[in-house]
Amino acid sequence: MHIYAQLMGAYRLGWFGALWRTGYVTMIMAPIAITLFIVAIFLLGALG
Q1: Exposed, middle or buried, 34 (CB in 10 Å: 0-12/13-18/19+)?
Q2: Which of 8, 28, 29, 37 could join 18 in a cystine, given CB atoms 3.0 to 4.6 angstroms apart?
Q3: Are 16 and 23 in contact (CB under 8 A)?
Q4: CB-based contacts of 2-10 (< 8 A; 24+ apart in sequence)
Q5: How far, in Å, are 14, 18, 28, 46 from residue 35 at the CA level?
Q6: DSSP state of 13
Q7: CA 28, CA 7: separation in Å to the nearest integer?
Q8: Where are the domains of the chain?
Q9: How far is CA 2 from CA 7, 22, 36, in A?
Q10: What percent of the chain shows pLDDT beyond 90?
Q11: Is 13:7 a contact under the CB 8 Å cutoff?
């Protein structure tokens, strides 16, 4: 919801444009965040 509201306000998008871009950002950023988290867990396990 926060990303959606930020896109609507910051870029003055309509509801459809903001919703579409929110889904796109989520599909791109979520796998990157999960991958970095898993790598961090492995590194902490290997170094600890």
Answers
A1: exposed
A2: 8
A3: no
A4: none
A5: 32, 26, 12, 16
A6: -
A7: 16
A8: 2-47
A9: 9, 9, 22
A10: 42
A11: yes
